[in-house]
Write a structure and sequence with these properties.
The protein is of the alpha+beta class and about 170 residues long. The protein contains four helices and six strands, in the order ββββαααββα. It is elongated, with a radius of gyration of 19 Å.
């Protein structure tokens, strides 16, 4: 799982009134939408995409507002004998119920199997690279779509989160 920012043109102030600052991501210095993406590392296919959160939202805030988070037990199997997890980066700290992070060596105990921890971290890192590649391909497609969108629309629709554009 990962969140990804996709750059969009600066919204005009009259289209989103004074709320256009929600779409600005100060860390990246751009207007953007944030997306929750979940990829299958086996087939490199998107399993889940929830687009359209303001660029000012952090990855964990987008996830917590998504249907995936609200109904994670419908998507992942958890019982006494079998658990399904999603691999995630440290941006999803605190969501260990279904997101597994790499194991930090500073939290390892002296009696832990360090070879197993190193092997897990290496596999985790390799799969995370594949996820980033998949997200990169999505961003390339998004850029093509946005070029068509900006040429066909004089401004963004007068909508904010949860509101429908006027017809």
């Amino acid at each position: 799982i990962d969140g990804t920012l996709v750059e969009v043109p600066r919204p005009r102030s009259n289209s989103l009134s004074n709320r256009h600052q929600m779409w600005y991501n100060g860390r990246k210095s751009m207007y953007a939408v944030n997306n929750v993406t979940l990829l299958s590392w086996i087939m490199m296919a998107f399993f889940y995409v929830d687009p359209g959160y303001p660029g000012s939202f952090h990855d964990i805030n987008c996830l917590r507002r998504s249907e995936l988070y609200q109904n994670w037990r419908d998507h992942f199997h958890h019982d006494d004998d079998y658990f399904e997890y999603v691999l995630g980066d440290p941006g999803y700290a605190g969501e260990e119920m279904f997101i597994m992070h790499r194991i930090r060596l500073r939290v390892a105990q002296p009696d832990d199997n360090m070879e197993a921890i190193d092997a897990f971290n290496a596999v985790h890192a390799g799969l995370r690279v594949k996820v980033e590649w998949g997200i990169g391909s999505m961003k390339r497609k998004w850029r093509k779509l946005m070029k068509k969108f900006t040429k066909s629309r004089p401004m963004w629709p007068a909508a904010t989160i949860g509101a429908r554009p006027k017809a």
